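Bit of a strange request maybe. I'm writing a small parser for structure token strings and I need a real example to test against, not something I typed by hand. Could someone generate the tokens for this chain?
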Amino acid sequence: MSRDDIYGSGKAPDGPFEFSEAVAAVFPDMLRRSIPGYAETIEAIGALARRVVRPDTRCYDLGASLGAATLAMRRAIDAPGCRIIAVDNSAAMVRRCREAVLADGSDLPVDVLEADIRTLPMENASMVVMNYTLQFLPPDERPALIRRIRDSLHDGGVFVLSEKVVDTDPAIEAVLADLHLEYKRRNDYSAMEISRKRAALENVLVPDSVPAHLARLRNAGFSHAGVWLRWFNFVSIVAIR
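Reply from user aminoacidic:
Good idea to test on real output. This should exercise your parser:
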């Protein structure tokens, strides 16, 4: 695993954060050191896929990056006739995701597409996953995508949405933000690296609150939705059509 030193080594260009070749090369380490509970979320996605994916349906990994959720589903699904569609709009991520899928031992078919998830046709789905992706879309475009995901699912199908969030209580938000900062320090990110990455993500990653996510899911027509995993200001939500 290559170490993430992008914001400490001068590899990252000035300007907004983007999913470049340099980011793709160190992405597993970046996730491990930046997102508390990420590995547990991936493990839980596999466990859920084993329970809910139906025969002859599709599973979608939207914003698949290097394919961690795709592989978790692939290794867990035992229902026949299924197919996974992994989608990302970063060419660097797609190339590495394809390599990871080819290196994996499972026989379940996976299509890795370079595409915009906002216009991707989706149908016949029993499970859709979106890990830390919605937060990068313009807020006014989020409701339509969530509705399209809901419409693509069979009744009883599940949508897993993982996101960084902000708390509606400013005092709690300050505590969570401080705990996350300490988490990154414990994982050997320097103050300069933390500051530079925060500046790069400003107005690129725009988080919502948990109530806002749940309201959007209800408005899209999901019958049930709730937080199933949380660590500091990082949550994963399960919604059921």
